[in-house]
Amino acid sequence: MKRTLKIFLTLTAAWFFGAAAYATDNAPPAAHPPVPDAKAILQKMAQQLAQAPGFSVTIRSDYDAIQQDGLSVAFGNRHQVFLQRPDKLRVEAARSDGDEDRLLFDGKTLTAYKSGDNVYAQLEKPGTVDNVVVYLVKDLQITVPLARILLTSLPQELESLANGFIYVEKDTLVGAPADHIIMRTADTDLQLWITQGEQPLLVKIIVTYKNAPGQPQFRATLSDWNLAPAFKPEIFIWTPPAGAEHIPFLAPVPQKIVEDAKQGVTP
After folding, report:
1. Can you give the CATH number for the domain in which 100 is found?
2. pTM for this structure?
3. pLDDT value for 143
4. Which of 208, 223, 232, 254 could serve as a FRET partner for 54 with CA atoms 20 to 30 Å apart?
5. Any domain includes 4
């Protein structure tokens, strides 16, 4: 029946439109354009950020907090990032509850400020932005939004984490035409939107923690990119607000030490 119907439709079209319809029906299918290389797109963006002498960007994000009863609640943040390599960093954070935090690094001293309590902590940590970002995340366990984009080793970091890439589509609804790609890792699936052209920039990201209960997500849009900022030196200098109290940094105690203490083992 289906074959008969197809023949009937072809003959009907030929009756109305002449031989052109017959020729079209027998033409070979149009060749599909090659699928863009998702990994190459990501690496081009990563190389550009890693090699930039500095940049500024605004990150508007929200994340899922899974409650004890399984309910997923989203909380939001806005971060403004100012990076000047090799050794200057400022991050201004505003949370959805109205609290504001600030993080500064001037190449020698790391300062963290919490406006809700009007307190700040400082630590002598000479080195580069790469050094201090790794220290913040791994040693102090302080959340730095999309911390890896601040590192000069970003291309290598992505290469070591990824175990698969997928090209989804060209997306025209994110401000500028962007390649929507997926990068898969052992613990997460990352959807990334990277603008097309000579200056590819990350403008949107969704991270799904696929092995965590409830598979929570982190979602962010990145805007106001500037890869050639002219920073005033004073933005990386810490000036305590009136009445601010200086407190020490509290580094988390490693879990092994906690377990040893429970068992009465001394270092």
Report:
1. 2.50.20.10
2. 0.82
3. 84
4. 208
5. no
